[in-house]
Write a structure and sequence with these properties.
The protein is mostly helical and 123 residues long. Helices cover 82% and strands 0% of the residues. The chain is built from four helices and no strands. It starts with a helix and ends with a helix.
Amino acid sequence: MTGDLRDWITVLLVLLASILCLAAGVGLLRFPDVLSRLHAATKPQILGLIVVVLDVALNRPAVETITLAIAIVFFQGVTAPISAHMVGRAGYRAHSVHGESMLRDDLARRIELAERSERRSGN
């Protein structure tokens, strides 16, 4: 791949990644509750990371670079949803979630059952 074409591909991929980061930032500022903000933060973030890592792998196509790029995307893809899930549960328990924005609330029943079980056991 020629240097000029590679530069243009880099410009396009970095521009795409920056647009995704901008979308995540706007979503964090504009969305009303924790769950919506988590969605806005995690989806564009992982996609932006994939685009940047793809750019790095295209600019330096070595086995080491591609292996590291795959590891970065894999571990980010595993940890981002887990951490978002835990933050969402904490936000739910802190009553930072708008109930009218949810279609179904499965967590309320589970929390109620857990609290009843704790009261019965005396803890």
